[in-house]
What does this fold into?
Amino acid sequence: MSYPEVAAFDLDYTVWPCFCDTHLNPPFKPMPSKNGEVRTLIDSYGYELSFYKDVPRILEDLKTHDVKIISASRTWAPEIARELLRAFKVEYKGEIVPLITLFDSLQWGEKSKVNHIRLGIQEIFGAKADIRDYKSCLFDDESRNRDVEKYGVKYVYVRDPESGTTWDLYQKYLNGN
Ligand SMILES: [Mg+2]
It folds into this structure.
């Protein structure tokens, strides 16, 4: 099993099952679980959104192995995505924390995914850090983003919009690279 140094995640249909710029209308109401986690939010129209259930476990496992985590999203509504990442709360090392705190760098905008990852690596490791010097991967549901492989980033295809990024897919990636 081989861990990367950097793991990047798309958000829509990779971390949660919706397009946050077209499907959702803030404000969001949290639906806390008994342990204080917030795995479900309800928007102002009553639309319920939960992140894919294995995502917090995957992020915790990455962080336990010193992997830096980047979000790489081209959403038109980064302020909504950011609000979701703040409002979702997950158990991490025995504490309840906002999902956003598990990310080391948040990258947004109409640029290519490789540029998201490049900027994330520079934010984390310094302005001179070169994407090719770090073992990295991208979890993403749009196969056109496979072009990150030209820059040495392993592309992990999140194929199924029902289940999103699963522990099983993650294990296959760790065991296959
Ligand atoms: Mg996506």
